[in-house]
Amino acid sequence: MRDKNTLVLLDVDGTLTEARQPIQKRMLLALHHLAKETEIGFLTGSGMEYIKEQLWPALNDIVIRENCHLLPCNGTEYVIPTGETSFDLTFKTLSKEIMRKKIGDDNFYNLIRHMCRLQNDILRENSSLPVTGHFIQNRNSMLNWCPIGRNATTKERELFQALDKTFKIREKYMLSLGSIAEEMGVTVKLGGDTSFDIYPHGWDKTYALTHFDESRWDFWFIGDRCERTGNDYEIYEALKDKNRAFSTSGPEETVELIDWYILRELKK
Length: 268
Known about the structure:
- The protein is of the alpha/beta class.
- The chain folds into two domains: 3-97 and 203-266, HAD superfamily/HAD-like (Rossmann fold, 3-Layer(aba) Sandwich), CATH 3.40.50; 99-200, Eukaryotic phosphomannomutase, cap domain (Hypothetical Protein, Haloacid Dehalogenase-like Hydrolase, Chain: A, domain 2, 2-Layer Sandwich), CATH 3.30.1240.
- Helix content is 41%, strand content 22%.
- It has nine helices and eleven strands.
- A hairpin with a 4-residue loop joins strand 6 (136-138) and strand 7.
């Protein structure tokens, strides 16, 4: 029987899917089997629009839809899918935080101004970077800053990843942004392969746990950015001592973790 007091939380980009890509059939099948045994939560730094874009086949699977929780923006938003069929699929927002209210207008505006200055510095100092537009995205409870722009193609993202790995572009600018953000009570993390996630202290992915009574739930987590600078670090650290947190190298390893470890443990 499915244990309704267990919630398996899953990062999306780099964990369930390749970056900004739709979910694949093998992962969909693994999630279908997992949802028969337990509740699952899609916990991502991205907003709802990317959950819909990347995970729509999962949300159209009635077994997954009836047993899943949508936790965009590090779980500072809590949404549940509703409707009995794919034709009446809708989404109900149960909770939503606003960063601008939390840190105040002045800090919010100054933070964006500082990111714009740093964006100019990056482009001036790295002339080989592709530039595609949509550099700063306001996700309400967080800001996402992408130095090459969120409109980048897969090829452009791969070029940036190679340059970033060699020249540590994001690490350098994270230090500069972090020093300003810290004064405002704001955290800066590497988001995915090309961007930064910026949000108030405490609004990391452990925030998702506040939606559930921890005395009644056991939590698991799989993510790909579990190093200290990554946006999966805090929740990974919170759950790893219980052997319920895993760092994955990508979707293939995630399927193996679900099929060969988590499902077996849940069925014991």
